[in-house]
Amino acid sequence: MKTHNWKSNYFSTLETEIDKIKEEGHYRVFNNIERKAGQYPKATRHHEGNTEEIDVWCSNDYLGMSQNKHVISAMQSAAEKLGAGSGGTRNISGTTNFHIQLEKEIAALHQKERALAFNSGYSANESALKSIISAFDNCLVLSDELNHASLIEGIRGSKKEKAIFRHNDVKHLKDILQGVEFSRPKIIVLESVYSMEADFAPLEDVIEVAQDNGALIYLDEVHAVGLYGPNAAGVAEQKGVAEHIDIINGTLAKAFGLAGGYIASSNTIIDFVRSFSKGFIFTTSMCPAVAAGSLESIQQVKQNTEVRDSFFENVTFVKSQLRSAGIPFLDSGSHIIPVLIGDSKLCKQISDYLLDEHQVYVQPINYPTVPKGTERIRITPTPCHSEEATEKFVEALKDAWLKFMPLLSKFENDFAGKVKSI
Ligand SMILES: Cc1ncc(COP(=O)(O)O)c(C=O)c1O
User: CATH fold of 36-65+305-421, please?
Assistant: First the structure.
């Protein structure tokens, strides 16, 4: 047996990588916060042995559905009836009536023949894309340059040829497709709302390109389901084009307030994915209580249009308050409000300052979530944020803005160019 500490070589390789991201300022620090059920956006922050009450302004629980009393009671009653875990994969004793009802509800929401639930939106994207793309010989994947990591990993896992088109640039997409035979299999992969830029994909134009070139469309509606469209099915529903989207991906973890993800599509595609996708087959199915809560949440959101109305009213109110306070932000008409900072260390400093001095929480969004030089804080209003909470938040942001403005201007020219290009 070797006596010297040979494992230290492994650790030092990893530590070098960690030190690098610390040096660059995008080492991730997780804030320890407990949201208070029924009092959202209030939460308790645990910090250096103390606790304090804060307001959360960066959660993806867009409608506050995680605290909805009907959802909580559906989860409680499912757990009491069926137990906590599902006890198996979907194939080996892990399918319950809640899973089946949930998939029916999702299929109906998107007006597709069938749906399939996964443990997260990430695994839905990664494993569904990998299996679908792999099925087609010589498949060409066309992917928006700002697609989410789960889409990128799914495409990469298929090992097929990938062409990246500039963000939301349909002309570039067309250029790439010029000269590619109509009969060659192709899949266009994109998101309907890009959560870091807060902009919408030009869906109608993408559909036209897909039809002219014989391409399938895989659309990630993770940041749109529960919010947009008459039944809250997303942007494709809002624009009346859902029937032209071949595979819709969504999450149960954002506007629906729980955890889990899904795809909705035709019978054939869903049957294929459930039969071949390893990330669906070889994992324990979602807890029955999560399936029951998600089912309840979708039904509540569909019926309860006032929650969505008040959500959009609050988004408009926050934007107007920010404008009056002179705080610039990216506004492409969606519900997400990114404030560009352009430097990772400064982004973290501003976020810490807001939390420590004003008890308001917005997480710094740094590389690799966004390209270097376009670091930002990302504000997500909900129907639960009162006018008073908004005024307090905007005052805090204004204070931080004035304090850090001299440092910010250093990056202004730099990021103005970068933002245009993202
Ligand atoms: C665009 C996009 N797709 C997929 C996901 C993954 O969804 P989930 O959180 O359900 O895993 C995210 C997560 O934040 C996302 O932003």
Answer: Aspartate Aminotransferase, domain 1 (3.90.1150)
Q: Could you check whether the bond before residue 41 is cis, i.e. omega within 30 degrees of 0?
A: yes
Q: How far apart are CA 110 and CA 7, in angstroms?
A: 52
CA of 60 to the centre of ligand 1 (A): 10
Residue 349, ligand 1, Cβ within 6 A: no
- Atom 1 of ligand 1, nearest CA residue: 148
At the second CATH level, the architecture of 68-303 is 3-Layer(aba) Sandwich (3.40)
CA distance 26 to 20: 9
pLDDT tens digit sequence for 24-73: 888 998 999 999 999 999 999 999 999 999 999 999 999 999 999 999 99
- Ligand 1 pocket test: pick from 62, 122, 297 the residue with the most ligand atoms within 8 Å of its Cβ: 122
More confident residue, 368 or 303: 303
Domain ranges for the chain, please list them.
Answer: 36-65+305-421, 68-303
406: pLDDT strictly greater than 90: no
Q: Identify the DSSP state of 162.
A: E
Q: Quick check: do 36-65+305-421 and 68-303 share a fold?
A: no
Helix (H, G, I), strand (E, B) or coil at 422: coil
What is the reported pTM?
Answer: 0.95
Q: Is the CB of 122 under 6 A from ligand 1?
A: yes
The CB of 251 under 6 Å from ligand 1? The reply is yes
Catalytic residues: 254
Work out which ligand 1 atom sits closest to the CA atom of 123: 11
